[in-house]
Amino acid sequence: MNFLQLVQRLRSETKATGTTVTSVLNQSGEYARLVNWINDAWLDIQSAHTDWGWMRTSVTFPTVTGRPVNTLAQIGITNFGQWERDSFRNYANPTVAITIASPGVVTLTNHALVAGDTFIPFTTGVLPTGLTSGTTYYVLAPTANTFTVAATSGGAAINTTGSQSGTHTMSSNNTSVYIGLASEVFMDYCDYDLWRNRYQYGSLRQTQTRPIEMTITPDKSIGLGPFPIQGYTVAGDYFTVPAYMAANGDIPALPTQFHMAIVYKAMVSYGNYEEDGFVIARAEKELKTFMRRLSSTRLPEVTVCGAIA
Asked: pLDDT tens for residues 242-273?
């Protein structure tokens, strides 16, 4: 159910006064309370645990020579909650060919990129005019081995002119481009104080190479060690911060079969407001069942050990 449908279901379950709610926007009175109760219930469910599986997502960012700390803004995250620190790894960036044409065409065999994926070019020499090293572009018109790029997702294809030199490589949010390169290296988590003493102040502070460790700094940035060189893409997971819904069509991220938990939690607020003990009792009973089932999805998978000798 989307935001509007959740509000409509709440009105139906509580038999609140009025006719069908047609929008979550610009409401007042009883309808405004229904909208707010649904949104508050959704926020409370998200906040019940910081590591809900359906709030986990992945991010990638390219290494920059000599830049050991990557802030949330530099990584491009705006909905950060907390890092999954044991998920980090890095890949060697694949080599690409770029034609000078209108539009310019990027060639990467069996890339598996789709329209809207990011393309960040790098070079040891000079890129064709129209592309800038380290700038994020977006994939257009992908075929099995080629694609064009745009400055914005779905925008106009970029023409390339001038001349080029050196070896060109690329980074992307889609880790499928690294498949088959056999270049994945998992990165160990390093305590921040140990990372600082080892890489910022210790004997390794002058070393720049492929990073093999990572840390989380006090401001939640990602620190890499040793200090990195260009040519690699770091990938890791994080949990998003709880957020309200805003538009009629917004759909809560939790699995569809648990959407009624939002309605029942909102019903508790409705019952308290109306001092309706019957609604409260029914809502709390149903909510407890849904939350127990939802929380069980966080349990670790059961594995079977080998035979005991």
From this structure: 999 999 999 999 999 999 999 999 999 999 99
